[in-house]
Amino acid sequence: YQPHDDVRHIDWNVTARLQTPHVRQFNEDRDLCSWLLIDLSASMDFGSGARSKRQLARELVGALGSLLTRHGNRVGAVIYGQGATRVLPAQSGRSQVLQLLHAMAPPSAAATAQATDLADLLRVAGGVLRRRAAVLLISDFVSAPGWARRLGPLALRHDVTAVRLLDPLEMALPNLGGLPMRDAETGETLWVDTGSAGFRARYAAAAERHENALRAALAHAGVDTLELSTDDDLLRALLRAAELRRQRSRCNSATPRGPSRALPAPHAAAAFASAAATTLPAPAP
Q1: What is the bridge-based pairing of β-strands 134-139 and 33-39?
Q2: Between residues 38 and 243, which one has the greater pLDDT?
Q3: CB 163 within 8 A of CB 62
Q4: What whole-number distance in Å separates Cα of residue 140 and Cα of residue 12?
Q5: How many CB atoms lie within 10 A of CB 236?
Q6: Residue 61: enclosing H or E segment and its boundaries?
Q7: How far apart are the first and last CA of the chain?
Q8: What is the tens place of the pLDDT at every residue in 20-48?
Q9: What digits encode the pLDDT tens for the residues 125-171?
Q10: Could you tell me which of 24, 52, 41, 134 has the C-alpha nearest to residue 79?
Q11: Which pTM was predicted?
Q12: Is 93 left (phi over 0), alpha (psi -120 to 50) or beta?
């Protein structure tokens, strides 16, 4: 231990055994192992425009997989859908990306309505991810409550980034008159009057409350969040995320700190931002 070392890195077991303070020295792991936790529940099939949230998730996974595996890094996935969970072991190469995309293809037949519980996905992921890894949780977070209690412990062991997918129609309803609406999670169908200004106002207020509660839960779990809408240009959104990551890195590096030998652990969003900044072309104006 030296006076400029971070006391949070003291190895107390070694210190007690040798009777001299020792600190742990961290070395950056160049072989990045990333895991994608993908929610493919019924609500992910919703989309008010040209693509659904499931299609947006496939495009995102295709881009992420290509970037993260380009230097031989390994990518695995835990895929949740209709109450079942599938695990794809971490591997590298183009075949792994194609296998991920194939696993995310829409089902051949209409699945029965079933409520989503992201806690099941996080529970399986906690058992599969033995070593520290970069984790991206891709979901619309339409789920039964209680999943946040499992996300916090997972974020303590791994570097977790939440990628939240949404559709503009989930935030505000247009005036389309009377419409039958079916809940993809439960199968319940209701007739609603979107022509009622009061109903649209209550809908928007409920959506805002859900947004505030969701963002608070993700912040309390200690994870970074990236939001993508089905009407977003994916390339622009990814470049925007890369630029925000670079700005945050510059701000962190500009903050005066004492010297330390500890190197940061690999970060999923940071690794992706670095790859995106050097790989993706600039969008046309």
Answers
A1: parallel
A2: 38
A3: no
A4: 42
A5: 13
A6: helix 53-68
A7: 53
A8: 999 988 765 556 789 999 999 988 989 88
A9: 999 998 889 999 999 999 988 999 999 999 999 989 999 999 999 99
A10: 41
A11: 0.76
A12: left
